[in-house]
Design brief:
Bound molecules: zinc ion
CATH architecture of the largest domain: 2-Layer Sandwich
Helix content: 25-40%
Oligomer: single chain
Amino acid sequence: MIQEKTVENAVADILRLIGEDPLRPGLKGTPQRVAEMYRELFAGIDQDPAQELMAGVEEGHHDLVILKDIAFYSMCEHHLLPFFGSAHIGYLPTSRVVGISKMVRALDVLAHRPQLQERLTAQMADTMFSALQAEGVAVVLKAEHLCMSMRGVQKPGAQVVTSAIRGTFRRGSLARREILTVLAGSAV
Ligand SMILES: [Zn+2]
């Protein structure tokens, strides 16, 4: 749980240190707003994403399940600027399947932390793989990073694509070809 009052004071300090007046009318409520926003954006730090996947049902379902174009927003831990885009998730259940909204919730828990896109992708795949005891999991994330678009190399619109594959999909199987074909053709 973040210490909002301390964050508020720290934001006021930053404003002062960049040469601004945190008490001028436009900025007066900013430290408090940023502190409240951080509580929301970083709410996933002390949450367990696997908890979201516990409510699965035994379906005896063994075919590929694919969820495409899930919008996500996260914060790059190097710059504390947003990166955002879409996630595509596929898994091969052993028998337990989970509701679509639960997968989205698990991704949100992981995204609401200071993150790296590579780690977010890997953590989502690991969470699905162990919590669902899935036979295989594939996660593809495509995102734009504001720390690349607004500063540094300044390449707006450039997409970073990361993928993580666990289980059966690793072994040159038909399922692997199937899932990569579907996920690669996803809209961004
Ligand atoms: Zn960054």
